[in-house]
Amino acid sequence: MKHSDKKINILELSKERFASWLEGRQIESYRAAQVFKWIYLRQADRFDLMTDIAKDIRPLLEDHFTIDRLETENVETSIDGSRKYLFKLEDGERIESVLIPERDHYTLCISSQVGCAQDCRFCLTASGGFQRNLSKAEIVSQVRDIKNELQDSMPLSNLVFMGMGEPLTNYKNLVAAIQVITDSSFGLGFASRRVTVSTAGIVSRLADLGRDTRVNLAISLNATDNQTRNRIMPINRKFPIEKLLKACQQFPLLGGRRITFEYVLLKDVNDSVEDAYRLAELLRPIKSKINLIPFNSHEGCQYQRPNEDTILRFQKILIDKNYTVMIRQSKGQDISAACGQLAVKTADSKQKTDDRG
Ligand code: SF4
Questions:
Q1: Which CATH architecture has domain 71-353?
Q2: SS3 state at 300
Q3: Which residue of the set 116, 120, 248, 339 is catalytic?
Q4: Whole-model pTM over 0.90
């Protein structure tokens, strides 16, 4: 993000905070709503474009605030139409967002942190370690900037927090960003039911998320016993399966919604017939649906993808137990569009270039 030292990126402020800044300068607070409409609904990048704001107020705003966009370092398009954006942040860190075309809309997968501290063994983002939380503006800008760029008639209507990072460990900024993203009057206007937060299972934040937002919940489960889950997802040692599922049972589900359970299928680790039956039993008390994600092997990774028969057998057992089970087709495989891969790839190639001097 570009901005000068003294100015504040207005995307970091809530409307209420901006209104009180205006009041402190004897400017009517309703101007805050007008400015926010320009920024989020009309995608304005300059205050001088805001024609319904008094001419003498606009320069004052220019003097104190910026309306920043992220710096796009690279965009890769997959043969299936997915687009992966690599953004370079002000401090040189990189994050990614992936735009996925569906039948009649786009889904955008966004990041909440630079890197991730959860250390899930099958995840490429984890190998880069955790760098820092994204600010509210950095989260919101992924959506605002990509929405602005889309020339298509197909709407960007769905958002998933499934990019880099564990959203629930950046809770304050996550919730502040969701407020702007789902504000239909002065924000980006996404329906809450079309926004999904995916977590590795930060149980201590689930009740907060249910209270503070109206978004959907997805749980990255990936194992049916604590021993296996401890091994592939260290967070399970702190929040074991039974605690996680109990918290899921208590999560408020609005209007017939269900919790999505993501299950990355790893060959000979969690893909057995027993696993499928155990999963069916575990999820029985929860209104749920299941996404099976056959693992995509990557360089240096110890895990492999199960064969097609094993994947279909696993799905059939769950379907026979009356679950809705999708096998999630990995979009954008040719551009490494799975969690964290582009940023890591870029960091690697930069490292190699640096090594070569
Ligand atoms: S799978 Fe998600 S929570 Fe786990 S390390 Fe990767 S980004 Fe973090």
A1: Alpha-Beta Barrel (3.20)
A2: coil
A3: 339
A4: yes
